[in-house]
Each structure stands twice: as C-alpha cells, then as structure tokens.
Amino acid sequence: MVADALISRLERAIGTDSVVVGEEAAMAGAGGWGRVGKPAAILKPATTQAVSEALKICHQYSVPVAPWGGRTGLVAGGWADREIALSLEKMNKVEVVDPDSASMVVQAGCPLQAACEAAEAQNLFFPLDLGSRGSATIGGNIATNAGGNRVIRYGMMRENVLGLEVVLADGTVVSALHHLIKNNAGYDLKQMFIGSEGTLGVVTRAVLRLRPLPQSQDVAVAAVNDFSSLPHLLHRLERQLGGRLSAFEVMWADFYSLVTTAPANGRPPLPAGRPYYVLIEALGADPGPDAQTFQEALGSALEAGEIADAVIAKDQAERDALWALRDDVGQVARNGPVLTFDVSLSISQMQAYVAEVKAALHTWKPGTSLVVFGHLGDGNLHLIVGASPLDHYDVESIVYRPLRDRLGSISAEHGVGLDKRAWLWVTRSAEEVEVMRAVKRALDPMNILNPGKIFEVSVGGAAVFS
Ligand SMILES: Cc1cc2nc3c(=O)[nH]c(=O)nc-3n(C[C@H](O)[C@H](O)[C@H](O)COP(=O)(O)OP(=O)(O)OC[C@H]3O[C@@H](n4cnc5c(N)ncnc54)[C@H](O)[C@@H]3O)c2cc1C
Questions:
Q1: Is position 367 within any domain?
Q2: Both 349 and 414 in a single domain?
Q3: Which of 56, 255, 272, 368 is 20–30 Å from 126 (CA)?
C-alpha cells in the first residue's frame, strides 16, 4: 500500500521516533486553540536537513503536507485531516543572540515567549507580543505575519525579520540568513514567505531584528465620550510622546463591562458608563522624564476634551492589572457561543462600519450581541458576535461584505487559512489572487504544501490516506 511504503521511507529518512502515526497522530490536535483535524501522520524533523528529506519524499509521492507551529492560529490554517502534518516542535532553540548586530538566530519551532526571554537576558528586546505568546512559535508568527499589541511602534512580523531559511515543496533549502537591514540586491524573497501561511515553503530558521530593552513603561486607561475624539487622541499621543507610543487599544463599553465584572477577575479602574475606554502604553529609556511627558500628554488631552477621565498605573502590579483587562478576551464567550472576527479598516471608516454591522445583525436576528475591541492604532478591530457556529455564513456575510467598498481586510491577524477562503474576494481583486496563484504554481507545482489554504489551485497532490 502507498501509505505504508511512504511511512517506511519517511521513518528511514528522519528516524522512527520522528514519525507519529495511528491514534497518537489522530488525537494530537485535540484540545489546542486551533482546529487541525485528525492527521494520518505527524512528522517531527529535528533539523533543516530532515525537513528537506521529508519534503523530498512527500513531493515524490505527491502527498499534501500541512506545517504546524504552536497551532494557535484560529482559521484552520494547519488543517491536516487524514493528511500529513509537519511539526517544527523539535526545532525549538534560540541559536545565537548577537548584541553587536542587535539580532538573533532562532529555529522555527521556538515559542515566541522563549525568544523574547532570550533577547531580554542580553538586555535586548524582541517587540512582537501576542496573547498566545507561550504557545505560538516564531515559524508560525512568520507564516502568518503576526501583529499583536505593539505594532503601532515596531510593526508586524515582516518589519522584524532580517533573514530566513525555508525549505521548498521539493526539499530545496533556501538559506538566506542575512543580518542586514539594507539589502537591495534583487527581490526581497523573505517577504514572499512571510504571511504565506505555509503554502510556499516551510520556515526552518530566522534572523530576527532586536531593539534596545525599554527602561520605562507607562500605562493608562482613559475614558472617551465620542468616537471622533479617538483619532485626535491617537495623533496627540504620537506627537507628544515623541515616538514612544507602543499601544493604543480601544475597548467598546460592552467589552469593558465584560472584563471588569464578575466572574472576570478584573475590576473597573474607571467607572463604567462611557462609550469607549483606551488602554495606552508608552515605552522609553528614561523613567522619570518619560512618566512626566506621559502625564502631560494625558493632561492636555483632558483639557482638549479628547478624554473624559484617565487613570495612570503607579507601579508594575497596576500596569499588569490594566493590561490584564485588555488580555482577558476569554470573557467574550461567557454568555454563550460566539463567532469571532479580526478585520482591518481605516480608523476614519470604523464608526460607520460598526454601526452598519450592528444594525444588520439586529435586522437579521433582533437582540444579537456585538462586542468590539481592537488595536485601533493599527486599524484592527475584533468583532465578537453572539451567534452559533451554525450561523457562520449569515454572520460572515454581515461582517465581511461592508468591508469591500471601504477597502478593508477580512484578516488583520490570523491569515485566511480555510475559514476565510470564501471571502478573499472582499479584500483581494481577481488579478491579485491570480498573481498569488502564479507564485504558488512556480514554487509548488505539485500543490503539496498546505493545499487549499488561502485559495484553491487547479493542480493537487493526491491524498493517499483515506
Ligand atoms: C489567545 C490568542 C491571541 C492571539 N493574538 C494574536 C495577535 O494579537 N496577533 C496575531 O497576529 N495573532 C494572534 N493570534 C493568532 C496566532 O497566535 C498567530 O497567528 C500565530 O502567529 C500563530 O503561530 P503558531 O505557531 O501557533 O502557528 P500555527 O497556528 O501552528 O500555524 C499558523 C499557520 O502558519 C503555518 N505555519 C506554522 N509554522 C510554520 C512554519 N514553520 N513554516 C511554514 N508555515 C508554518 C501553518 O501551516 C498555518 O497555516 C492569537 C491567538 C490566540 C489563541
């Protein structure tokens, strides 16, 4: 049988202990954040060479392979039902931290938090920060171009990767582990792989750009009376804080209420009753003067009427407590099943967009709840709709269609995976998708790498497991 011959060859190539099959493979995805199905086999190569050998064999057999990181992506990007999953979990080391070039070389399966801690031990800072930091891996962060809490200051993953090593579908290793900020010698190929959701190559190692470790952190929550004040407040803080603004997280009243009342652990740092609350963070180098500028910026926002009230954290415990409110996203599901969305659109369009979605949901089913929060400084909104998974098409239609005319995006964070594939047309033109398909065909003509994720292509690897 093809499947047996294939598994034997994979075992000989990368070692029996690196090939998991049967019930153990089928159950591996159970209980994690992301939906991955029941794989027929999971490959766990420990080196780039082993990844290459494994892909060469899968390519020969024309067998689909889904790369796996920490499986925290929520769009079924690692779906591998009765297919082969390739987990990078054994490639989990920080290889080098180089303070002189302010960079580090990290293996793809290294958890984000471990990479951040290794940088911090050398007084350096890797600024990517996600709620899933303990499980999400550097390879997954690269494959999804992850964003998170500090994008407003440091950019997304693509702004923080200097070099990359990837293995192509046929096993070719493309090693471009450059440490350069400037490299204009031809196409910047690494950018093509960043955000490609495992469809163009398997990321095995990366060179990450590091920054000086911040010495000051100022955090506040401010109450805001009207949406039109939010962009003014954002621009004031960017101006007055001299580039130190690192987070501008807006919580609509419903979200604030959920995370500050029992059974949530958080309590309101400011009284409820305002329509918007903003978590503001600035990172800097000089604690005393930085705290003063922070206070002055909030004071002038108060005078200008952009904020109605504010509370500034006095110590680390208070800073952590304010961040814990914003991070307590699990509360959104406490009143029943929800459908969650992360969309992107210009800040000037947000108020009208949220009003339109709210009205459409009420027309669809009166009383449907909508909870909103997001990284407003990056144009990224999270919408949480109180609806059953069975209603997903109706609700997706209400949430996604109004983005098209507003030139918004159906995905600000997790990518497209399988779940958002049907809605790609909202954000990408037919021509854009055709160029993406052409790139996919050029790098993976047999269509074995994460087939069907993001979009369909006409050729396909044959499934050998049934
Ligand atoms: C609580 C929570 C909070 C989150 N917050 C954020 C946030 O603020 N911002 C944000 O952007 N995302 C966020 N996410 C989503 C998720 O954590 C990110 O998308 C993360 O980057 C995924 O990393 P992972 O290692 O878990 O990848 P996985 O979920 O395992 O995989 C994601 C995709 O990448 C591919 N992939 C994984 N590893 C590789 C590799 N080595 N080579 C090639 N392809 C690969 C997979 O095939 C899949 O398509 C959050 C998720 C949770 C559960």
A1: yes
A2: yes
A3: 255
pLDDT at 459: 67
Q: CB within 6 Å of ligand 1 — which residues?
A: 33-34, 66-74, 77-78, 88, 108, 130-132, 136-137, 139-141, 143-144, 146-148, 197-198, 202-203, 413-414, 417, 450, 453
- Taking residues 359-377, report their average pLDDT: 95
Query: What average pLDDT does the chain have?
Result: 95
Instruction: Render 62-122 in DSSP notation, one character per residue.
Output: T--EEEESSS--SSSTT--TTSEEEE-TT---EEEEETTTTEEEEETTSBHHHHHHHHHTT
Residue having the nearest C-alpha atom to atom 27 of ligand 1 = 140
* Ordered DSSP codes for 29-59: TTTSSS-----SEEE--SSHHHHHHHHHHHH
**Residue pLDDT, tens place only, 295-317:** 999 999 999 999 999 999 999 99
Task: Read off the pLDDT band of 466 (50, 70, 90).
Answer: low
Whether residue 130 is found in the same domain as residue 192: yes
| C-alpha angle 461-464-466 in degrees, rounded to nearest 5 | 125
pLDDT tens-digit series, residues 90-137: 999 999 999 999 999 999 999 999 999 999 999 999 999 998 999 999
Taking CA atoms, 280 is separated from 298, 326, 413, in Å, by 10, 11, 21
Q: How far does the centroid of ligand 1 lie from the alpha carbon of residue 233, in Å?
A: 31
Number of domains within the chain:
3
398, 341: one domain: yes
Q: Examine the domain organization and report whether 175 and 113 are in the same domain.
A: yes
Whether 38 shows a pLDDT value over 90: the answer reads yes
Domain end marker among 330, 362, 377 = 330
Position 71 scores a pLDDT of 96
Q: Where in the sequence is the domain holding 310, given as residue range(s)?
A: 216-330
Position 460 scores a pLDDT of: 57
Residues 111 and 139 in one domain: yes
Strand partners, 166: 174, 203
Q: Which amino acid, residue 391? A: D
Residue among 113, 312, 77 at smallest CA distance from 217: 312
How confident is the model at residue 1, as a pLDDT?
52
Q: What is the DSSP letter of 455?
A: S
CA of 33, closest atom in ligand 1: 53
Contacts of 235 (CB under 8 A, 6+ apart): none
CA 196, 384, 230: angle at the middle one, nearest 5?
A: 90
Q: Where a domain ends, among 306, 330, 354?
A: 330
Distance CA 392, CA 97 (A): 45
**Which of 129, 414, 419 has the most ligand 1 atoms within 8 A of CB, as the residue to mutate?**
414
